[in-house]
Specification:
This protein has twelve helices and ten strands. The protein is an alpha/beta fold.
Length: 312
Amino acid sequence: MKFKSTKLEVLLLSLQWYWYRCKNGLKMTQELKALIHFPKEYFEGLSTLYRNGLANFAPTREQDLKHACDRFAFSRDREDMLRVLVIGPADVIDYLVNKFGKISYVVVEPAKDEIQKFEDLVKSKQEQSLWTTVNFEFYPCTIEAYLTEIERGATHGSFDIILLQHSAYHIMDPANVFAELYGQLNGGGMLYCQIDTGPMEEVRLRVGSVVSDSIPRFGSTALRKMLQRCMPHVKIHTQYRKMNFKAGECFKEESRDGNLIVDFLVQLHDFRKTAPREVVDDIMKFIRDSCYELDNNMYFPADDEDIIMIKE
């Protein structure tokens, strides 16, 4: 399912980034590299965020996903196979097994180390006689490559649930990919996307104007507007979550944890070392201005939102 508006959507995002660059007087640099090209540092940054308080909100995220599955409109018998596509190796299997029984669980993840970790987890669970009703498939590739495989008939599509838990940011052509994913849903199926909003989205939009590669940067607000324009017939449900993490280390330039957090926020590798000083100053001022103080600690808002689409 493709839409003629896709190129327009990409152009609008590019213009939005250009506006941020002009507004803030930022200059392009060829030294800046997207963090996604450095998987080790990417996951170290994410782990550091969790150690600094983001982990406290994991149960809320999990509960909201369960509530979304409880609203899941697909009528089925437990003897039928539930087909699930997960982009990024999110673990929601225990809940789905208890609710639906037999499951086909397809994982698409370009980071091979993360695929291996998930395969090891599956092996461990099955050695404990768990997840025995789940059939796993692992694809170490991008979602774009996987959709191409479906299109040419190399693998089977048609899913009941499609999950993107903080993995949509790296999709090169989000409008078209989401349209294709929606097209892969069975009737009554659910597409569920967790994605940043608020200051987490804003800081990446500001940084998007100085990135030397073509990876797009967007969050919930930009994605919802994009989907509403190119898929106006689809009803979008949302669930907002207020979250935070301790950000005091961000303002200590020699702090390893602080630099890992800053790099993850801006999604750039060695941001303080490679970005022009005016860029660093502008972004760090925005991060500081977005923080609030609580119990003698500085916290950065890490709010996110669920975007949920049900196939009629």
